[in-house]
């Protein structure tokens, strides 16, 4: 009798998907709160004492509104980190399952799950490529969900806006921008919030495809 190699067991994804979707919603809410606080700063106007950063290492005492924005920004950063962790856990699991479904090695080696987000230039397409490959293996012959392109386009817009996720701008400088010209800040925030919403649909689409494919494999 010919020996057969048993396929690798599928990794559970339902719980990881719920965690990732919940964290995406939380991050979206946090960035929406950040945008609302920027609007409050813009409508209130800069104090007569000038911006928080006075230059030459001098900083004036913050107003209560500015203190609040520091708190909102800190909470938003924490929500973003949580979102990144839970999303990568889910992505790792669905990638492993896609490998099991296809029987072929993934196009991107496992370090790219993490490095693909931070390596310059490569981070413009590698994460989307990983997601597209997972869908291709999980739902062969089916069209890539529109949510994937919306999610990735909006993510790039928020990341590369000059005020978004890739730029470590001091919070006091962001406050000063809000006083002078809040619209670029709001545009970046809107892109991040929309990307988070689209990301929920991406998680749902790939998870559903894998659960359906797994059920069909058991029935076969």
Describe the protein's architecture and organization.
With 220 residues, this protein is an all-alpha fold. The protein contains seven helices and two strands, in the order αββαααααα. It has one domain (15-47, 61-219). It has helices at 14-44, 64-102, 112-115, 126-138, 146-159, 171-180, 183-219, and strands spanning 53-55, 58-59. Helix 1 (14-44) crosses helix 6, helix 1 (14-44) packs antiparallel against helix 7 and helix 5 (146-159) runs antiparallel to helix 7.
Task: Tell me briefly what this model is.
Helix content is 67%, strand content 2%. By secondary structure, it is mainly α. Strands 1-2 form a two-stranded antiparallel ribbon.
Labels describing this entry:
220 residues; 67% helix
Oligomer: single chain
State Rg: 21 Å
Mean pLDDT equals 89
Lateral strand order in the biggest sheet = 1-2
Strand content: under 5%
Number of helices: 7
Low-confidence blocks of residues = 1-6, 216-220
N-to-C span: 21 Å
* Sheet/helix structural class: mainly alpha
Form type: elongated
Q: How many strands?
A: 2
Order of helices and strands: HEEHHHHHH
Topology:
Blueprint: H1 14-44, E1 53-55, E2 58-59, H2 64-102, H3 112-115, H4 126-138, H5 146-159, H6 171-180, H7 183-219
Antiparallel strand pairs: 1-2
Helix pairs in contact: 1-2, 1-6, 1-7, 2-4, 2-7, 4-7, 5-7
């Amino acid at each position: 009798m010919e020996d057969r190699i048993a396929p690798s067991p599928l990794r559970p994804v339902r719980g990881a998907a719920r965690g990732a979707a919940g964290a995406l919603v939380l991050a979206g809410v946090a960035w929406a709160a950040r945008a609302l606080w920027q609007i409050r700063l813009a409508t209130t106007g800069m104090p007569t004492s000038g911006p928080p950063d006075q230059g030459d290492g001098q900083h004036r005492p913050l107003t209560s509104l500015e203190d609040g924005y520091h708190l909102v920004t800190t909470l938003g950063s924490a929500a973003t980190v949580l979102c990144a962790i839970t999303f990568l856990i889910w992505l790792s699991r669905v990638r492993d399952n896609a490998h099991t479904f296809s029987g072929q090695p993934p196009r991107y080696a496992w370090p790219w799950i993490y490095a693909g987000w931070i390596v310059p230039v490569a981070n413009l397409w590698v994460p989307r490529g990983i997601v597209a490959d997972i869908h291709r293996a999980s739902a062969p012959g089916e069209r890539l969900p529109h949510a994937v392109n919306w999610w990735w386009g909006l993510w790039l817009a928020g990341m590369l806006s000059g005020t978004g996720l890739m730029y470590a701008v001091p919070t006091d400088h962001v406050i000063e921008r809000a006083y002078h010209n809040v619209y670029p800040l709001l545009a970046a925030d809107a892109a991040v919030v929309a990307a988070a919403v689209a990301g929920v649909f991406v998680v749902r689409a790939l998870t559903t495809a894998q659960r359906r494919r797994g059920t069909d494999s058991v029935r076969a």
